[in-house]
Amino acid sequence: MEDKSKEVKPAKKCCGCGFGPFLVGLVLALVIGWSVIPAIKLEEKKQPIQFNHVVHIENAGMACEECHFIREDGSFNGLPNTASCAACHEEAVSESAEEKRFIDEYVKKGREIRNEWLVYQKQPDNVFFSHAVHSLERCANCHTEFETTQQFCNICHLDVASTTTPPVYKENRISTYSVNTMKMPECEACHANPGHYGTTNASNACFVCHK
Amino acid sequence: MQRRGFLKFALGGTVGLAASPAIWTTLYDLAYWTQNWGWIPRLQNGEDLSVATVSKLDGTPLKVRVVDGRVINTSGNKDNAYSAGGLTPLAASEAQLLYAESRIKRPLKRGPDGGYAYTSWEDAESILKKKTRNAQGSLAFLTSDSSSSLNDIFSAFTAENGSRDFFFMPSDEQAAAVAWNTVGGSGSLGYDIANSDCILAVGANFMDSWGTVAHNRAVFKETHPTGENAEQAIYYAGAMQNNTAVVADTWLPVKPGTEEIFLGAVLSELIKNNIMADSSLSALASRYSIEEAGKACGTDTEQMKKLVSALKNANRPLVFAGTTEGQSLGSTVHMLAIAINAVLGRINQDGGMVALPEREPLLPSAQRYSDIFARNFVAYSMQIANGMANAPKLLFINDANPVYALSKDAQVKECLAKIDYTVCFAAHWNETCAECDLVLPAAHGLERFDDVYTPYGSGNINWTLAKPVTAPRYQARPVGELILALADELGLSLGVNDIPSLLEMRANALHADFKEYLESGDTYQEAFHDFSVPTLNFMPLHSKQAKAPLSEIALHTYINSAAGNPSTGIPPYANRAITEYQLQDGLCVAQMNKATAQKLGLADKQKAVLETKNGSMPVLVRFYEGVMPDVVAVMAGLGHTGFDRFSVNKGNNILEITQIDMEAGSDLPVWLSAVNVVKG
Amino acid sequence: MDYSKPIDNALFPKGCERCSFTQFSLFMLIPTALLIWGVIAAFVVLYQGLGTTGLDDKFGFGLWITLDLAVIALGAGAFFTGLLRYILNIDELKNIVSFTAVVGFLCYTGAMLILVLDIGQPIRAWFGYWYPNVHSMLTEVIFCITCYCIVLIIEYIPLILEQRLFEKNTFIQHLAHNFHVYMPLFAGIGAFLSTFHQGSLGGMYGVLFGRPYIFRDGFFIWPWTFFLYLLSAVSAGPMFSVLMVTLMEKITSKKLVSWKIKQLMGKIGGTMLIVYTIGKFLDSYAWVNDILPRSGLTFEQMFTGFVYSSVWFYAEHIALVIGIVCMALPALRKIPAFFYLGCFVTCFSIVLNRFVMTVQALGIPVMPFEEWRWYWANWAEWGAFALVLGYAIITIAVTYRYCPLFPQEAELNKK
Amino acid sequence: MAHFKDFAVRYGMVIDLDKCTGCGACMMSCQAENNVAPQEDAGNKLRALNWLKVYRLSNNKEYPEHETVFLPRPCMQCGNPSCVTVCPVVATDKNEEGGIVSQVTPRCIGCRYCMASCPYHARYFNWFDPYWPGDLKEALSPDVSTRPRGVVEKCSFCHQRLMKAKDKAIANGEDPLALPEEAYQTACTEACPNGAIVFGDLNNPEHRVYELKQSPYAFRLLERLGTDPQVYYMSKREWVRRLGDNYLGHEETGSPERVLLNNSH
């Protein structure tokens, strides 16, 4: 007690220990902050069916638009439903175990795959995202950097076209959003950009996106 | 470790964390977490369809939105010319009624202890089979929806079992049919509201609860273009400024029970104003006078004179009578209404009163409506209850709730008690189910094939198909199919194998394309063509003794069409549509004007007790100058004990204590109650 | 160990007598009971939702908002006395400034406690900072109140540090010392923040042009309403502190602050009251003769029945006049009876003002076909009030017992 | 007072009160369209959550001079909304073409300042968590997010329908800012069997509301407060029009001597 208070009284020059503790703390915190915490925040989930895009595109020669297209009424058909898969997969067309499982579990039981598929960019209920308006045609007027629609889609979406098994779905334990879900600041990157308004009507008004 | 060392360590840590995204991203995650509460239902996307059908509650053509197989909501069918896309409040709640808690999930059997227990369909069917066999010849059938072609199956089934006791719930339709029959009219009575340019509706709340409401209002929409002049004048005569009165050009107050005197006065005034009429009618008219009516009905004589000249000068006037809650006033008022149309030369004219060809039974043993309407359930029930008639061994009740809808006078409970075995087909658990031995889950209107054929109030032959937009939920089954199956079991051949083919028979009878109408949900309409003027005989009216008007205060019951009907209970969303003037603090509101209240010594917003010959109930007094003097208006449709949380604990059932008298001659029930309200 | 003294006397401020620990504990039962009631109410409200209160869609604001506004006005003694003491160097005030700080601290933390219950999504309360709307008066209020609350905490800390417990601890002694050194700075910040939110609290109502009863525009919103609310606070604040001191004197049967200081506070408050009253009367005049006719409404239409009768409107104004008479005339002010009456009616007028501005303003039918509606706070809402009351009494009692709250106490009570 | 930009498109209603029977079809369809949770006891009308509420108006005369009119009250989507400027967290705003006052409930903290500011009582608070007993939640529309307890909500002119209409227009290469009248109609407008509600773009001469709002019988609620509503009413009866606003005894209906604020279109 006594000597410490002596030591304190001048209270001007630093004690002997130097910057050691500071650095230790700094490094430790950086490690935790950058890697540990983000890691424990995420929960990994598996898709109900290990869908193989490559097979469908290359072997079956399908185009993206056959499954992912904008409907007459302007709404977006993001995922094919069991029925449209069954068009080809009523019976097994390959030896794939996953295909067999799909036919047994979904086609035969009439279970809707669309309701179980984990959407990487899933937006919460209060968001209305219009695929119709975010089209290459409209954006290409100014944004000449995109050649293909696929390229364009990959701005927001994972490039799954070249995957033989679906990427792992990572869900934030706190917000329950997928890591790939665009957050409002990312939307605002364009929407809050005054340059867009007038040419695209992409205002940043609440009711442009929220419902 | 020294304090300062630790402080430095902590400082370093803080700086480090601040320099990492952990804190900031976590804050955002928290923000998102606070925006999506886990226990609030999430939305489900899916295939989004719009299916056309028709509401079996009130015949409103519908577009039903179905997402991923779930029924989301109902809206009017814009492609349907008959309703012009209009939607009634009741039809708007179809989706909620489909999923309501009050849906009966499985067959229920009443045990010896009076309690109900779930049972299997196999068991239920074997019971039905056994009971029907044993009942041989002593079977009765009660249903409420007269517009359905399925009635042919039910009446045929009844007949094939050697009985003719097939009944509809009492209604304006029945009273009018009897009246039309009595004056020698043929076919069924129709009202060409669409083409009339001047309408007098006596009692009939045709903009909300009488007749083909959706169509009537589509006509109003067309004849009253916003911002332009109306092409149709509407005169409404009734006890209260109700939904029809507020949009009518003139409201003529008429005290309940004096509709006959009012119509008689109109008739006599018309004849005074040298409208040609045969001697029999002139003689009849001489019984009435405007002055007398002014006293008895409480109507302003000047207004009546204006009305009469309006009818006289109109090109296509139309007069009809009815009630606000679709019950019965007896046949006399209808005969007088017919008489007025007759002297105006409006029978079988465009925009007049028309004799529609009576519907031909589709099945050999099905009964004619004219015969069915000749029997009325109230009389039947009373006789059985009083032992004046033998109780049937077996009673089927389909989609009807007499225990709730009919007053103590009808003695329905006593009647049911006397019947050996009672079976109730219902989609929702109602008050009548609770009195029956076997309760069977019936398919809801959106779960079955059915149709709406020329409902009462139509001005032409019209027909709309109902189709299932979703599979029956729980263990519910369409009653039509059930009866057909039962008939099959019993080895009876009704002449049709399933409902669609019955409906197809209807289509063929009308020369309409079944598939097309099934698909489009459109309404088949047949323009009225038989303009031959029938010769009518109004002598029966002479024999009638004019009913003496009530000296006391009269009860006026009305319904809020949003608040459901006796078979649906109060739909979930309707609670918000029931106003403070109808239900407040759990009490039915008794509306009356200040003069009446002063007579009774009551103050506004005061708790009181309403008394009739049949009993009493607590009410809350609210002043409303839109109710005529000496009348107390109370909303019917409250005070349910069946159904679900949205129906119970809401006021009392006024219908229970209303008074029913039998009309001399026709023996039809007449609703008319003297009422007293005392401080409670 | 001297057994004639309470067992915890080692912790008492120097030279101060305190009642026995048993007696103290018994006294504490009262606020504890209030606290328990409050905690139950708070739990019910937070767990089941605000439906458990007497509030409804017409009265979105009720007892709680009234209380918030009232206590924040009454708590203004803190910043104002601080301002006079530290910035304007009126030295005598050092004898009461720490007490006013504690009162202020309790008023503000109490208000925030209630606000947490009052908003439907307490867990989103921080959105006020995260996604602020700069146009909203409420944003400014949220911001200032929370910041000022921190200032009050800082002003409270030295009191605790001066506890006998820490006598020996030189570090804490230094800390306490430094706090005192920097106090003028905090006092300044506090004064700045308070001035703004006291004003914007008035603005909060003044901008509601859908509510003719409280709407003000043009000159009468800025600067008028702004300063009216500020003035009402600075006049009632000091007087409220005085009343509280006197109440404590009654309870402890000790002299805590000299009559001279009280008079000074009263004088200051009185002076402010004169300015406020003039402003208030002008404001009311302008409201009756300009705002109302422009809204197509008459003075009579603003009142009905007893709860909404014009009695309150007049009472509010008359109370102010009485307040002035008692406080501004030295002759009367020197008479304790009039002095305390003056303090009381002033606080009364301010509280009443906050009530009518909140509840009556919402009860009035603005659409001609509406009816008057009534609102009664229920047990849960009063419970929240009890919560704050209990918490305040406990805090102040403990502080008084163990901390040198009143520098003058020792010598004022010399035997 | 913040100033709101003039919109090229301003959606609005003209409601003909002489045609309203007060049946409540609009209220029913509104609830179903917008995922409003049913209320077991809506007896206390100050706690009954109605985006659209039907009022019963009276000329306050005694029988037989008495007259009744029903008045449906959606959100007025004010041109100068008193609610928007007061919201501390920008949960409500008026910033999108169409001039609909937006309410984003996940942002709302439930302070109810907006409710205190709205003279039409068009804003409602979720006093309890919403509850869909039994299977009622099956009928939830995928277009409107559900709201938890403790947030304020209000009529949005069924703007989810506007979003869909715009998408459809875009998909078919049409201009989403020049939708034909029938492309976007609110649930209540469609429901009303009497056609009492006319809905459309107040700025677009091809929409009926453009003409109707200029009728001598047209009026708006509490116009003199300066809220500048986008909902108009019509009635041939003067007493009805007079009930639409507060008038001093000597003032003539429709032409007050002075107004509180002046921001009318």
From TrEMBL, chain A:
Look up keyword Metal-binding and say if it applies: yes
Record flagged with keyword Glycosyltransferase? no
One Pfam family cited in the UniProt record for this chain? Cytochrom_CIII
Q: Which residues form the Class III cytochrome C domain?
A: 44-102
InterPro entries associated with the record: Cyt_c_III_dom, Multihaem_cyt_sf, Multiheme_cyt_c_menaq_reduct
Which terms are listed as keywords in the entry?
Electron transport, Heme, Iron, Membrane, Metal-binding, Transmembrane, Transmembrane helix, Transport
TM annotation in the entry: 20-40
Write down what this protein is called.
Cytochrome c3 family protein
Q: Which organism is it from?
A: Taurinivorans muris
Kindly list the organism's lineage: Bacteria, Pseudomonadati, Thermodesulfobacteriota, Desulfovibrionia, Desulfovibrionales
From TrEMBL, chain C:
Q: Which cellular compartments is it found in?
A: Cell membrane
> How is the protein disposed in the membrane?
Multi-pass membrane protein
Positions of transmembrane segments:
24-47, 59-84, 96-117, 137-161, 181-201, 221-247, 268-288, 311-332, 339-362, 382-403
In which family does this protein belong, per the annotation? Belongs to the NrfD family.
Which keywords does UniProt give here?
A: Cell membrane, Membrane, Transmembrane, Transmembrane helix
Q: Which organism is it from?
A: Taurinivorans muris
Q: What is this protein called?
A: Polysulfide reductase NrfD
TrEMBL record, chain D:
Q: Which CDD domains match?
A: PsrB
Q: Which PROSITE patterns does this chain map to?
A: 4FE4S_FER_1 (PS00198), 4FE4S_FER_2 (PS51379)
Name of this protein: 4Fe-4S dicluster domain-containing protein
A Pfam family reported for this protein in Swiss-Prot or TrEMBL: Fer4_11
Q: Which UniProt keywords apply?
A: 4Fe-4S, Iron, Iron-sulfur, Metal-binding
Segments forming domain 4Fe-4S ferredoxin-type: 11-41, 66-97, 99-128
Read off the InterPro entries from this record: 4Fe4S_Fe-S-bd, 4Fe4S_Fe_S_CS, ET_IronSulfur_Cluster-Binding, Menaquinone_reductase_QrcC
Query: What SUPFAM superfamilies does the entry give?
Result: 4Fe-4S ferredoxins
